[in-house]
Amino acid sequence: MCSSPSVHSADYYMQEAKRLKHKADALSPGVKSSRLSGELRASIMVNGTPSPLSLSPSPAGSGGAGGGSGGASVAIPQRIHHMAASHVNITNNILRSYEHWETADRLAAESQEFFQELDSVMEPLSQPSSMTELVRYIRQGLHWLRTEAHLL
Question: From 37, 38, 77, 117, which residue has the greatest number of CB atoms within 10 Å?
Answer without folding.
Answer: 38
